[in-house]
Amino acid sequence: MSQKILYQLSARQIILLALVSALIAVGATALLGNFGNFFQTSELSNIALAEKPSPTISNPADLSDEQNSIEVYKKMSPGVAFITTSSIIENFFGERTERESGNGSGSLIDQQGHILTNNHVIEGASKLNVSFGGDKIYPATVVGRDPDTDLAVIKITPPRQRLTVIPLGDSDNLDVGQKVLAIGNPFGLDRTLTTGVISGLQRPIRARNGRPIDAAIQTDASINPGNSGGPLLDKYGRMIGINSQILSPAGGSVGVGFAVPVNTAKRVIPQLIKFGKVNRPKLGAELFPVNRLNKRGYQLPVESGLLVHRTLRGGSLDAAGIRGLSQDGNDLLLGDIILSVEGNEMNTVDDLYRFLDKKTIGDRVNLKIFRGGQNIVIPVKLLPMPDSRSTRRTRRRF
Predict the structure, then answer these.
(1) Could you give the CA distance from residue 386 to residue 282 in angstroms, rounded to a whole number?
(2) Which are the contacts of 22, defined by CB distance < 8 A and separation ≥ 6?
(3) Alpha carbon of 287 to those of 17, 197, 290: distances in Å?
(4) Is the model's pLDDT at 308 over the cut of 80?
(5) CB-based burial of residue 32 (10 Å sphere; 0-12 exposed, 13-18 middle, 19+ buried)?
(6) What's this model's pTM, rounded to 2 decimal places?
(7) Which of 65, 156, 201, 372 has minimal Cβ neighbours within 10 Å of its Cβ?
(8) Do both 105 and 190 map to the same domain?
(9) How far is the C-alpha of 131 from the C-alpha of 124, rounded, in Å?
């Protein structure tokens, strides 16, 4: 009889695995709570985005810094939306009333009336109203939401007169120290301008659902409650980020604000407009970080990677033959461990999120896995998350 090389788990380790499952779920919940304190308030090519530099902004080299700030504000502020949200409130007697629940900012991105904002600005709202200064109020509807990047697109019925569109810049070519301008509605103060510089790049922040938002822009331009969803502009009036979070123990600006890079928005906007959501590929599996398991008493055969607990029928890994934990009599056999994807090490689930966020359904990638005492490479076609009636362990499905 041939010898089995598969790694076996003892009864003690099986119990420990169950405990780790609960701890990971509790830890994820706590992490979301902590980051919540930072928040203040194909066929897609036919969807046009305002990516060209605005022709109305003078060459900044010909102006003083003050004149440049004044001109950018005058030219771009008419395209910054003041978003007011209302929510349904139910009292003790079951009576339901609609009340104003918050406000935020947004940027008009085309002449069809599409407005880019944060998902957390409009999340849970029963009604949306938009103004661009003055007395005119436009009712708005939600076009699409992407909780993973904390972005959303809403829409108004555009008036006959031409609107001011905020042009989209390029967030891949920024430098620490360059000038930025933020226009928004902090504390309900209509279209307020603050200025500063880029304080840092590639900052790790998270959406409210715990997903990492890659390469956020840090700025010292004052950002306060109500600025969320508004544009962070460069000196040419181009949007380079969407103001989203502040780091503040007291709830006000302390000069540490974060913006979602505009290039992230440029990836998701066409899908939000066309589908109402972002169709990301998923591996279709329940995964555990190996380093966490090792720290909690396991002696797994590798130091890092993502242990496949189980695969979902019809998912990417299931179709590729990737194996999860399995039973052999009284023994629990170790599943495959994902070491890297396309050469990118997979030490945490955040590594996987960042990789998949830049991929589309149908892409093919090579997974390096540990199986049976050796490393092997398996090609995988990326598919959407398969349907499943089970609601268990949803926090660990990728």
Answers:
(1) 9
(2) none
(3) 12, 40, 9
(4) yes
(5) middle
(6) 0.79
(7) 65
(8) yes
(9) 20
CA distance 247 to 109: 28
* Cα–Cα distance list, 382 to 211, 284, 316, 356, 362 (Å): 19, 9, 5, 9, 5
Q: pLDDT (tens digit, 9 = 90+) per residue, 127-181?
A: 999 999 878 999 999 999 999 999 999 999 988 888 999 999 999 999 999 999 9
Position 383 in a domain? yes
| Torsion angle in degrees (nearest 10) through CA of 120, 124, 128, 130 | -10
User: How far apart are alpha carbons 198 and 221 in whole angstroms?
Assistant: 8
Q: Which domain holds residue 200?
A: 48-275
Instruction: Decide which of 379 and 54 is more confident.
Output: 379
Give the number of other CB atoms < 10 A from CB of residue 375.
12
Q: Which of 327, 321, 318 is nearest to 376 (CA)?
A: 321
Last-in-domain residue among 215, 246, 275: 275
The mean pLDDT of 328-337, rounded to a whole number, is: 82
Distance of alpha carbon 1 from its chain centroid, rounded? Answer: 51
Inform me whether the pLDDT recorded for 36 exceeds 90: no
Give strand pairing partners of 85.
Answer: 102, 128
Same domain as 284, residue 155: no
Residues assigned a catalytic role: 120, 150, 228
HEC profile of 261-308: EHHHHHHHHHHHHHHCCCCCCECCEEEEEHHHHHHCCCCCCCCCCEEE
pLDDT for the residue 88 = 79
The one-letter code for the residue type at 226 is G
What is the rounded CA–CA span in Å between residue 127 and residue 137?
A: 13
Average pLDDT of the residues in 374-389? 86
- Dump pLDDT digits (tens) for 238-250: 999 999 998 876 6
Same domain, 222 and 139: yes
Radius of gyration of the chain (CA): 24
In a domain, 62, yes or no: yes
Average pLDDT in the 323-328 region?
84
Pair (328, 365) in one structural domain: yes
Query: Domain end: 275, 308, 330, which one?
Result: 275
Q: Is 64 in the same domain as 94?
A: yes
Structure tokens given for 393: 């362990």
Examine the domain organization and report whether 224 and 100 are in the same domain: yes
> pLDDT tens-digit profile of 221-232?
988 888 999 999
Q: Cα–chain-centroid distance for residue 262?
A: 12
